[in-house]
Amino acid sequence: MFTGIVEELGTVVAVEPLADSARLRIRGPVVTSDAVHGASIAVNGVCLTVVEHGDGEFTADVMQESLDRSSLGVLEPGSRVNLERPVTLSARLGGHLVQGHVDGVGTILGRTPSEHWEVVRIALPADLGRYVVEKGSITVDGISLTVVEAARDWFSVSLIPTTLELTTLGTKGAGDPVNLEVDVVAKYVERMLEWRTS
Fold first, then answer.
1. Quick check: 44 and 81 in contact, CB under 8 A?
2. What's CA 55's distance to the chain center, in Å?
3. pLDDT (tens digit per residue) in 144-180
4. Which residues partner with 189 through β-bridges?
5. Is the pTM of this model over 0.85?
6. What is the longest distance spanned by two Cα atoms in the chain?
7. 8 A C-beta contact, residue 101 and residue 182
8. How many CB atoms lie within 10 A of CB 88?
9. Beta strand extents in 28-176 (DSSP E only)
10. Tens-digit pLDDT profile for residues 88-107
11. What is d(CA 42, CA 142) in angstroms, rounded to the nearest whole number?
């Protein structure tokens, strides 16, 4: 479980394509400072398992399911990624409950700069629109954000200077893919209502 509060902007060191998966090596001195084999680290919002670590880097395997449902497949050496370690029971929940299970890939439609923040509009897959509500939470590339506007096939978020400076959303532009995880509570409510009416 994560909070969507990015701890570090890491860098992809190597990508090794495999038959039905890929192996990523990522530099992230902060998130590897207490890493152990089998630990979880969210990479652009995708929960991955540490298989090797050392010298401020870690290696993780990405299965085909994760490659199909996220934008991790487009990463290459030099790509910047948002990194977060799992939340501990004694930590403050600064964002919202994030599982690291990406629901789909959205596309940045455009950016509107302002004096102190920037509004980013993002297209989302049709099957996710029902889970996104104005002033609700959504995770974009592992970042916990508040929805400003919500339409059927897009939503917008406002990014403060800290988010622009310390995450990948500071440099992504129109057409770039982003990983989306909707609020898990909405999915559970929908599922319970389905069982109740069937």
1. yes
2. 25
3. 999 999 999 999 999 999 999 999 999 999 999 999 9
4. none
5. yes
6. 54
7. no
8. 7
9. 40-43, 46-54, 57-63, 80-84, 104-113, 118-123, 137-140, 143-150, 154-159
10. 888 888 888 899 999 999 99
11. 7
d(CA 61, CA 67): 10
In the numeric block, the tokens 């298989």 are attached to 51
- Contact by Cβ (8 Å): 41, 84: yes
What does the CA dihedral 177, 132, 147, 173 come to, rounded to 10 degrees?
Answer: 10
Residue type, position 30, single letter: V
Per-residue tokens: 61? 């395997």
Q: Which domains does the chain have, with CATH numbers?
A: 8-84 (2.40.30.20), 104-197 (2.40.30.20)
Scan for tokens 């652009």, then name that residue.
44
Distance from C-alpha of 63 to C-alpha of 67, rounded to nearest angstrom: 6
Contacts of 19 (CB under 8 A, 6+ apart): none
Q: What is the DSSP letter of 87?
A: P
pLDDT at 35: 93
